Structures are given as C-alpha cells and as structure tokens.
Amino acid sequence: MTTSRDPDRLIHAFIREGAEQLDDQVYDAVRAEIDQKRQRVVIGPWRVPTLSKLVPIGLGAAAVIAVLFIGSRFVGPPANSIGGPPAEPSPTPEPSVVAPTPSPTPWTGIAEGSFLVSGTDAPVQVTVNVKSPGWFPLSGLGAITKNDDGLDAPVSVGGAFIAWTWPVGTGINVYRDPCRWSTTIPETPATTPEEIAAAFSAQASTEPTAPRDVSVGGYAGKAITLRVPMAYDVPNATREERFGDCDNDTFAFYGIEGETGEARNAQGAGQVDELWIVDVNGAIVILDATYSPATPAELVEELRALAASATFE
Predict the structure, then answer these.
(1) Which residues span the domain enclosing 251?
(2) Exposed, middle or buried, 171 (CB in 10 Å: 0-12/13-18/19+)?
(3) Does residue 55 carry a pLDDT above 60?
(4) pTM
C-alpha cells in the first residue's frame, strides 16, 4: 500500500492533526507534489495559488484550536458548566477578638467592719470594728496602721493599733527605768492588769497617767498612758543615735518573763502609747494605741474607738 500524494488530502490531514508537525514522509510528499506542478504565468491581476491560501488558513485554524484547547485546561470549566457543582468561594476567616486585660484594682486597705487584728495563731484572738477607710495590716505583727509615712515620732502623722497577747500565766516585766531597762528589771513580774498598771505608774521618764478602770469586750482591766520625753528629739539622727545613752541604744517599756531582750520599745521622742490592759480568762492582753505628737486628733480618736470595739476569743 502506497501513501496518497493528493495535496488536498495531505493538507486536510495536517489540519486534523492540530498543532503537531507533519511526519517527515508526509512533508516530503507534499513538497514533491508542489515542485512537480507546472507553474503557469498569467499577465494581469495576481492570482494567489490555492495551496498558498490554504496553508496559512489551515495553520491559523490549527493555532486557534490549540489556544482554545490549552486555555480550557488552565481556566477550567465555567462556574455554570454541566457536569459538576459550581465552585464555592473559600470562607473568609473571622477576625479573632482578644479580650482586653483588666487593670488590677488598687487595694485601698482593710474593708470597713470586723477585722481580726491579732492573727489566728495568737493565744487570744482580738477582733476590732474598723469604721473608716485607709487602715492597713502590719505584716508579721498583730497590728493595723493608718497614714504611715515611714517616719518616727515626733514628726510622724500616722498611728498604729497593736494587740499584744500572751498565754495564761505569763508574767510582764515592767522596767523601772526604760533607758536603763537591762538593769532595772523587777524581781517579781506582774501578772494582773492591776499589778501591770501600778508598775507603769511608778516608771521613770515616761510621764505616766494615773491608772483607771476600764471594761473592754466584757472583760475588766486597767488603762494608762505613757509618753517618751522630748529630750530624745535629735534632728537628722537615727533611732539608735537618739537613744544612744540608753542600754543597747533602746528605750524600752517592758519585757516578758523568761525572755531576753525587750518586748516593747519606743521609736522616737514624744511617742505616746495609750494602753488598755485586760485579763481574758487568765491571759493578759495589752491593746496599744501608739501615735506621734504630730498625729491629727481625728486619727487619735479612731485609735481609741478601735480599742473600745475590741472583742476576744
């Protein structure tokens, strides 16, 4: 079987093949067929040979078909084409909402109402009624304070309320001279509110008031006020320098039987300590409202009100 050399059929074969190249044998056959045709010269308007017209048309048609075919592969079927569901758009992610971090609320102190001032591990638990804002607990000490400016008497404008408690049978050593406290320890400690108040009333240098009877939280006791002499007011001096002439640079009010060192000492000249000494079922409780000569009278009254509101357990 021989290959057909009809040019028209060969060109149609090329068009059907699309953009692919003709086989070399087919190409040679077409070229040979063209070369063997006798050319005829015509005078007048030019006549484009049939083959030269068909070849560009055929090549252009093949190129269009190829572009349409390749473009359909890249573009894909239209959204409403038959044979598959329309493409769904990707969901837009919702923006994440970050909740703002709330600013911490500054602590304004002890809430008004009942407050356990002595701590839960104290021999006697002392609760007071706080009636005004601005009171803060003193860490590590059964006490609360207000307007603490970090200064000592006589210039401090603050005040503190302290609940000193001891187990039943504890003796109190009230020093006869607070500046010479280490050498003026009494031979017999005081164990009742009456004995303690009497020892304070005989104490040198503290300008004690006369003891008076009081009742706190349903328990009887004695009250007395002590004051540190202004002679210890040394401007720009440390606490040790102020009391440099005293034993161990300390002005001490009293100590506890069987313990070395003082239990309560002064911070500066002019310091005032109002004491309520109460016997709670055999245990001694001393409520101590301490303040400076510069402390406002309103705060002094708050200290006294705390003592009057005290209850014991």
Answers:
(1) 113-312
(2) middle
(3) no
(4) 0.68
